[in-house]
Amino acid sequence: ISGATDQRPVMVAFASFIHLSVKGLDDGIYLTWYDSVQNVWFSQWSKEPGGTCDGPAITVHKLYADYQTPIVVRGTDGNSLWHEHAFSVVPWALISGSTPSEPTLAAVPL
User: Fold this and answer.
1) Number of Cα atoms under 13 Å in the Cβ half of residue 34
2) What is the pLDDT of residues 33-79, one digit of tens each?
3) Residue 66: CB partners within 8 Å, gap ≥ 6?
4) pTM, 2 dp
5) What is the rounded CA–CA span in Å between residue 61 and residue 59?
6) For residues 17 and 96, what is the distance between their CA atoms, to the nearest angstrom?
7) What would the DSSP string read from start to end of the chain?
């Protein structure tokens, strides 16, 4: 996979896919995935709108018939927290509060 990051990458496995998210050197948020059935990485990075000062937090879960990929990032101001669903037209939402630390996410099966 081509590209570069100055933060740790995040990988999440769900069903037959591995989702990979990184912070680019331009502070952008990038996602791609691996299909274990076809044994191939998706050939392009998807750049999400916005930016982050450290690695994004992602998880994957199934909601009804759709798979969701929530993302939480710390804003480029270093404190604010933002949430969105990857590959969605819904804009980022500010989460109340702030943190000096990199966020994490976990999915709980229902």
Assistant:
1) 10
2) 999 999 999 878 999 888 999 999 998 877 766 777 888 999 999 88
3) none
4) 0.85
5) 7
6) 32
7) ----BSS--EEEEETTEEEEEEEBTTS-EEEEEEETTTTEE-SSPEEESS--SS--EE--EEETTEEE-EEEEE-TTSSEEEEEETT-SSPPEEEEEE-SS---------
